[in-house]
Write a structure and sequence with these properties.
Number of strands: 7
CATH topology: Rossmann fold
Strand order of the largest sheet: 3-2-1-4-5-7-6
Structural class: alpha/beta
Largest sheet: 7 strands, mixed
CATH architecture: 3-Layer(aba) Sandwich
CATH superfamily: Vaccinia Virus protein VP39
Number of domains: 1
CATH class: Alpha Beta
Domain Methyltransferase: 47-140
Strand content: 25-35%
Protein name: SAM-dependent methyltransferase
Pfam families: Methyltransf_25
Radius of gyration: 16 Å
Helix content: 25-40%
Distance between the termini: 30 Å
Organism: Fischerella thermalis CCMEE 5268
Keywords: Methyltransferase, S-adenosyl-L-methionine, Transferase
């Protein structure tokens, strides 16, 4: 039996705290995502930044020429991200959206999830896989970053082994690679993470 983890009210969090102080804040493109895009020779197309939060990854991807949609359950996060993108003259579609009741009606070349999946209760994981699969074009990719089973600090997201990722996603995605990495952000030491490249079957 997996112990249920507690998470904040995301909207209140983004209203009450400076985004630069949040554990996952990283103003640059995620290093693992950048490496994956180079390896797969992906330099254009449509992207969904799922759980975009402060919008840093959506903004970084837009600057690279991708057509980006960023979604988050927090209206406050979306408002802040949209404002930041407009300041930089970027055309990004930021939408307040709950992945389990998603109003999105398009397929993307790839989805980047840097911290959404690993906060969901285990009972919701197969719903997540089904819905995200439906948002990705055939042969498109899900780039998934989540906490690793090697992370030992108290609290925070659920942890995963590579075998669990394969088991959860294997019916609908071809697992290209899973590697141990870290979450670039404001914590010291940086949390241990898994970065998975999953291709839609």
């Amino acid at each position: 039996m997996i112990q249920q983890r507690e998470f904040p009210d995301w909207n209140n969090l983004y209203q009450e705290r400076q985004v630069e102080t949040m554990p996952w804040y990283n103003p640059d493109i995620d290093a693992d995502l950048e490496q994956a895009l180079i390896e797969l020779k992906i330099d254009s197309g449509t992207v969904l930044d799922l759980g975009t939060g402060p919008g840093t990854q959506a903004i970084a991807l837009a600057k690279k020429g991708f057509r980006v949609t960023g979604t988050d359950i927090s209206e406050a996060a979306i408002t802040q991200a949209d404002s930041k993108a407009k300041e930089e003259g970027l055309d990004i579609s930021f939408i307040q959206d709950d992945i389990f009741k998603s109003r999105l009606d398009q397929e993307f070349d790839f989805v980047f999830d840097r911290g959404c999946f690993h906060v969901f209760h285990p009972d919701l994981r197969q719903d997540y896989v089904r819905i995200v699969h439906s948002l990705i074009k055939p042969k498109g990719y899900l780039f998934l970053k989540c906490f690793s089973h090697l992370e030992t600090r108290e609290g925070g997201p659920y942890r995963f082994t590579p075998e669990e990722i394969k088991q959860i996603f294997g019916d609908r995605f071809h697992v290209i690679s899973i590697h141990e990495t870290v979450y670039q952000g404001t914590l010291d030491p940086l949390p241990k993470a898994l970065f998975s490249i999953l291709q839609r079957i």
